[in-house]
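Page 42, continued from yesterday. The earlier attempt failed because a stray header line got pasted into the input along with the sequence. Redoing it now with the clean sequence only.
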Amino acid sequence: MLAGCAATAALPSWGASRCFGTVAQGRLEEGVALPADGANFAAYSRLGVTAGRTHVHSTVRDIVVDAYAQLATALPGTVFVYGETGWASGGRIRPHRSHQNGLSVDFFVPVRNAAGVSVPLPTGLTNKLGYSIEFDAAARFDDLRIDFAAIAEHLFQLAESARRHGSGLAMVIFDPPYLPMLLATPRGDWLREHVNFMKGRAWVRHDEHYHVDFRVACAPLA
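This time it went through. Structure tokens are written below.
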């Protein structure tokens, strides 16, 4: 599932993307696809990749890939899975209520099995490509448990990568009951100060994934 380093060593060269409007009502020009896999990450579904559901703004692509590279050093042996992002031209991508202008990415929660080994969250047709998985109040699903320290480090690396690319994290959506566990990690104080978590619950529970909106200047939607 996870490829070697060569998979992300050389990214295709595109011109800069242009975003319009907002994540909830927008579009995208020159959208680019995230790499299907890399040394420590993979897309949620080959079907989703083939269908074109993993496109983003070029700046977001660079941020995401750079953050994964940093995580390979910060958390060796930890594996990550990203979910849906959007169409190459943006616009409504059902069933999402945002993801319209290339600035939104779903990241599935990193998990560890009963032996404490980092493994990819299972995403397949039987669980709606991972989106129908339900973790319990103790953040467990079958023999898997959410790795909150890995989520916290991922958010830190995304923010640092975004800063290097002249961007930032606009908002993060994660299931509110899990926030105390996330903020209890070594990066907790940093998260409190630097990350804007959505207040209250989203229209669907975000327990199996965390949604990140990036801050990139977009033109008005004509």
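Notes: Residues 3-14 have pLDDT under 50 and may be disordered.
Reminder to self: strip header lines before submitting.
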